[in-house]
Design brief:
heterodimer; A: 217 residues; alpha/beta; Rossmann fold; seven-stranded parallel β-sheet; globular; B: 117 residues; alpha+beta; hypothetical protein PF0899 fold; three-stranded mixed β-sheet; three-stranded antiparallel β-sheet; 30% strand; elongated
Chain lengths: 217, 117
């Protein structure tokens, strides 16, 4: 019998590609967000509102991942934002090699912020480094207050939490304060924002914080 | 199911580590993973089994070992295991914690057994 010592990280290949991307983003002075959430929380709507509100402040490009369709990239493209759609055909998360290949389509463009809209999934994407500066998790009032406790890893790995659809609070038992309380249990240092893409509540505060992060890169 | 992707990566590292002619001698591959790696053991076993079918690795299996999520409280010095993902010190409730382990996912070793014909 022979035992070979290996001691290698299983995702080392992904991490190496992510590390290369990170260097590229730094060289090009681009701030990169990996936006994570379950389906239907409003990732694309948030990106749309951000694009409109920041068009005179900084420039944005988007890489969006979905299992099927290019619906999201069409919505974002309609705002004249450079966007690349990744269709995973069943893949439940994005990996660094997919982002690297998509990014090749953006190499000739100048932009300050890259948003990677991950596949809608609160489990699998959490563990894959895409070369981003920060992971941001988007939750919503329609999801219920216990999502941070049910999916702790994604909330633990994220620097910021955006609680969206606050305009629906009068009609639901779920409150943003409850989601926030649970998120802080699994990640005491997570920064929390409460937003509505319908009323624009909280969007300016989120953008202002994001700008300060971009400036300090 | 990201366990499929993880199993693919495991197989690639095995092939980089062991000579092609020795792959069929592999009996087990020890994997160490932490609570924060989000790995479901049953799903990983199933994915690996599916991928090694009719290959030189078909006699091998994954031996999975959990590594605990350990926190050290920077307020009172308490060191303990966290099972429930609640990051407050169980002794003084402080959230000023240093986390050790928990998010790793690695291949520790590969065992080869010489099979007799």
């Amino acid at each position: 019998m022979e035992i070979i010592t290996v001691e290698r990280k299983i995702l080392e290949k992904n991490d190496a590609i992510a590390s290369g991307l990170r260097k590229e983003f730094l060289f090009r002075k681009q701030f990169v967000i990996n936006l994570l959430s379950s389906p239907g929380t409003g990732k694309t709507s948030l990106i749309e509102r951000m694009a409109i509100k920041t068009k005179n402040i900084f420039s944005t490009a988007v890489i969006v991942g979905d299992v099927q369709t290019d619906n999201d990239s069409k919505r974002i493209g309609a705002l004249n934002i450079p966007v690349v759609q990744i269709v995973t055909n069943g893949g439940c998360h994005l990996e660094a090699n997919l982002v690297r290949d998509a990014y090749k389509n953006l190499l000739d463009l100048k932009f300050d912020l890259l948003i990677i809209e991950n596949v809608g999934n609160l489990v699998c994407p959490a563990g894959f480094d895409l070369g981003e500066d920060i992971k941001v998790v988007l939750s919503s009032i329609t999801e219920g207050e216990d999502k941070p406790l049910k999916y702790p890893v994604v909330f633990r790995n994220s620097v910021a939490l955006i609680i969206n659809k606050t305009d629906l609070q009068p009609y639901l038992n779920c409150k943003a304060s409850g989601i926030k309380e649970n998120a802080l249990k699994v990640n005491p240092s997570i920064k929390v924002f409460e937003t509505s893409c319908k009323t624009d509540e909280g969007i300016d505060e989120w953008i202002s914080w994001l700008e300060s992060k971009m400036k300090s890169k | 199911m990201h366990e499929f992707s993880i199993a693919e990566n495991i197989i690639e590292i095995i092939k980089q580590t062991v000579r092609a002619s020795d792959l069929e001698k592999i009996s087990s591959v020890k994997i160490t993973f932490g609570k924060m790696s989000n790995v479901m053991p049953e799903a990983l076993h199933s994915a690996y089994k599916l991928l090694i079918e009719d290959t030189p690795l078909s006699n091998s299996y994954l031996s999975l070992e959990n590594s605990p999520l350990i926190v050290k409280c920077n307020n009172c010095g308490s060191i303990h295991v966290v099972d429930d993902f609640i990051f407050n010190c169980r002794d003084c409730s402080s959230s000023n914690l240093t986390v050790d382990g928990g998010d790793e996912m690695r291949i520790s070793n590969i065992t080869l057994t010489n099979y007799q014909e």
